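Standup notes, structure subgroup. Blocker cleared on the GLP input:
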Amino acid sequence: MRLIIQPDYNRIATWTANYIARKINDAQPTAQRPYVLGLPTGSTPLGVYAILAEMNRQKLVSFEHVVTFNMDEYVGIPVNHEQSYHSFMWKNFFSKIDIHLANIHILDGNASNLEKECEEYEAKILAVGGIDLFLGGVGVDGHIAFNEPGSSLASRTRQKSLTTDTILANSRFFGNESKHVPHKALTVGVATIMDAKEVVILASGHSKARAVRHAVEESISHQWTVSAIQMHPKGVLVVDEEACDELMVGTYKYFLDIEKGNI
Ligand code: GLP
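Run returned:
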């Protein structure tokens, strides 16, 4: 696993946007052989989306032959609700880039048969040849997508109940009213994420320091689903200084040292 330590949030966003743009450009995607991205919501990826959109405007990267699969979506709120992940992605990214509508995939949290919706999502990922790079954030309790503590590390796309911690954390987007936060979501599984050819997880700020410690220094555990990245052959964790607050000094120095001069 690579641990990329950056001074602050803006540098995390810049490093990651450049990394993704380079991967897309190197792949030289075509309509027949698109580049496939897994994408998250949350506040952490916002900087990455803004920089990628600007790079797209400057023609430094194109999303014309990029296919996307979002990680998760709430169950039971209208697609056009301002806090649905459909709205989030459209507002913060898709409306600003040259992606084809048909190439965007987001789980439908209002599908009449949610189980079927999840099975079909996995099938669609397989049909395009799998995900090349899955970008993710992490919850304070170490969850990736909505794979809350105790989620199977072999899990696939399915419906999950959100923990009280996550409902409270996400209430900031719902006028600080936890009663307005949906209690269920559809989410890709830990194994769905780990099947991607590359996994890039972002963590910013002191509140994520415990999750980063579990991802880097502790054992792999379903209690901290982000720790599954240790099993990935190409896992990258991109963090800022504050998110390193709980790492041992030796760990921190070790990763700074081995990443010296790398891009
Ligand atoms: C939600 C999302 C996750 C995200 C997490 C952290 O639970 N389902 O994908 O990583 O929030 O969000 P933030 O980046 O806002 O801290």
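Discussed briefly. The mean pLDDT is 97.
Next: hand off to the docking folks.
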